[in-house]
Specification:
245 residues, alpha/beta, D-amino Acid Aminotransferase, Chain A, domain 1, 4-stranded antiparallel sheet, 5 helices
């Protein structure tokens, strides 16, 4: 069984589970965390159980897990009293960090203490990590505290000023957009090194293409799961023994 942690509003996750139906892929939403039948012992995580469709499922049936939900948000919990949702959401997020981290199966989008889908770096941090890995980066990023319609903290130099390229990385392997020219091999190697350094198993890196060069301008720990080549790359990574925790 493959498990996809996702929002109850995430139609892309439901379609991905359908695409992977021959792998018995199932979507886990936050509401399932309130069902009876969960068992988790941090010293013996492989002997625990989770609940799907009101039925307990042994953890040892899981062959892989994909995390598409950065955190449990109050809006995911309509079955909880409104005044308690924020607290319950925080507790569920903390539980999921511990539970997913302990799973013996491969995990894509492995949680960190601040996000269920990987390291939640700010723009400046991504640029720093990219430079450390040897990627050419946009030389200046500044944030505007100006009032008005543009909120404080917005980048002054938006990424759509010049032609851009996106490269998805799945378990360290690049999946370029079909319409975009590939990155030079040295940049692809550096990008994989950056993802490894920050602990991101899923990544979409953004590059700007100037007249004579290509420069890194940012990244997110998410990918477009509806792109067939990305879905196939994720499935291959979840089945790869080398990606076993």
């Amino acid at each position: 069984m493959l498990l996809i942690l996702a929002s109850r509003f995430d139609n892309d996750a439901a379609r991905l589970a359908q695409r992977w139906q021959d792998q018995d892929a199932r979507v886990l939403t936050c509401q399932a965390l309130s069902r009876r039948g969960w068992r988790f012992d941090p010293t013996r995580p492989q002997h625990g159980s989770l609940v799907l469709d009101e039925e307990p499922v042994a953890v040892d049936r899981l062959h892989g897990m994909l995390c598409l939900l950065p955190a449990v948000y109050p809006g995911e919990l309509p079955h909880i009293e409104p005044g308690d949702r924020e607290y319950v959401a925080a507790e569920m997020t903390a539980f999921l960090v511990a539970w997913i981290t302990s799973l013996p199966c491969p995990v894509l989008g492995r949680p960190t203490p601040l996000s269920l889908t990987g390291p939640p770096l700010r723009q400046e941090q991504w640029l720093r990590e990219a430079a450390r890995a040897g990627l050419p980066v946009r030389p200046r990023v500044r944030r505007l505290p100006a009032p008005g319609r543009q909120p404080a903290g917005t980048m002054a130099n938006p990424v759509d000023e010049v032609p851009a390229t996106e490269v998805a990385l799945v378990a360290g392997r690049p999946v370029p957009a079909p319409a975009d020219p590939p990155l030079p091999p040295a940049m692809t190697t550096a990008l994989a090194a950056m993802a490894c350094a920050v602990g991101a198993t899923l990544l979409t890196a953004h590059f700007e293409r100037a007249v004579s060069d290509v420069r890194f301008i940012g990244a997110t720990t998410s990918v477009d799961v509806q792109r067939p080549e990305i879905a196939d790359a994720m499935l291959a990574a979840l089945a790869d023994p080398a990606h076993q925790r």
